[in-house]
Target: Circularly permuted ATP-grasp type 2 domain-containing protein
Amino acid sequence: MRAEDGVRAAYAEIAAWLRATPREDLDRKRHEAELLFRRIGITFAVYGEGGDPERLIPFDIIPRIIARSEWERLSTGLRQRVRALNAFLADVYGKQEILRAGKVPTALVLENEAYRKEMVGIVPPGGIYTHVSGIDMVRTGPDEFYVLEDNCRTPSGVSYMLENREAMLRLFPRLCARHRIAPVSRYPEELLETLKAVAPARAGADPTVALLTPGPYNSAYYEHCFLADEMGVEVVEGADLCVQDEVVYMRTTAGPKRVDVIYRRIDDDFLDPEAFRPDSLVGVPGLMAAYRAGNVALANAPGGGIADDKAIYPYVPEMVRFYLGEEPLLANVPTFLCEREEDRKYVLSNLHELVVKLAKGSGGYGMLIGPHATAAQREEFRARILARPGDYIAQPTLALSTCPTVVEQGIAPRHVDLRPFVLSGKEIRIVPGGLTRVALKDGSLVVNSSQGGGTKDTWVLEDEGPGGLAEGQSQSQVQSAGLGC
Model:
């Protein structure tokens, strides 16, 4: 919120609001937000820790602000990056030119467990592999944004982005009315348009789309149902689908109905027991045969994990240069691959100041934050790296930006990141903003919900106009949940 010379312009109204709002009013609104999320049922699941696995993601009522000029630079870089990631996937499952050119180590790709040989030679409709990408960003200075990681498999969290906006509109209509906030409510409509755009040609103008979920025990099941409802499509489990003559059908009360596009929220391993893990009980037998025959589109395409593997991540800037002939607009965090001898020596000598991550890890697990770790923890990771160096990467500890956050002690700075969602179909679409995740523990850099993190609404501000309202937008529209903002 603050720069060296005071409050940043985009936060001026928020700063004034915080000065004028008594602490007890903030606490009351915080409690109202929790009741609202609990009543709607906005939860995620954490298994294996005991107690009730269904939990609310803490929602912080102070929004995170991004100026329009900042967002324009970010969104341009995001489009460039996702184009390069899609080109990389098409290449490694096709001609493998980037490997032959020596720009990415061949063994790092072809011997990687995320590389799916079953996808070799398959060209998805439109040549799109990652239809929904979640690109995690961190900010370290006024004009310094870095990509922390790419999510090209089944990125989650967009439902919280949408529900966070709804909550702010309900709780703070006047505050919303004082800002010209770029809308996010079109995301489900744009997602559906993206999915329909990659349907097989025979589907015609109105293809049938379904969302495939592993079921209610999945941690993101709420989001699956939410998105299916918002798009007006069926949410199905593996048992609801069947494949006959390499065509996918959905069981309905009126009989089998052909499915043209499947927005799948099931990991590759469990997608089709005939192609991947034979013990999968949540997949669809024969699905990959139908996909290979071109009778159904899968979003995201199987095998996309090779593009977001943490060991591949350092090579994304080179992908931009190789496929697009452009310089990367978004920078990577400097990354050390522990399988390289030189990198490994550096990492082992500097564990006290690095963040060490599992190359295949997610959710904030299997990570060492060197400056906050004990000597015993650092020695434990030293032994792990020496035993299996290829399993680990390391990065410097960045001075992540903070946002004002309501905590038990009052308003305090907490570290944040940002996950914009990029849709790739006939065109690339990005709703303004994304999901801001916040590390609620004092000093923590881990924003993951499973590790105690929360979320904020993300406001991309349009240029100010008379009265602060967007063109054609009335006060009543702003105050009505779902409109205006």
In short: Residues 2-200+296-330+398-479 form one domain. The longest helix spans residues 68-92. The radius of gyration is 23 Å. The chain has two domains: 2-200+296-330+398-479, 334-396.
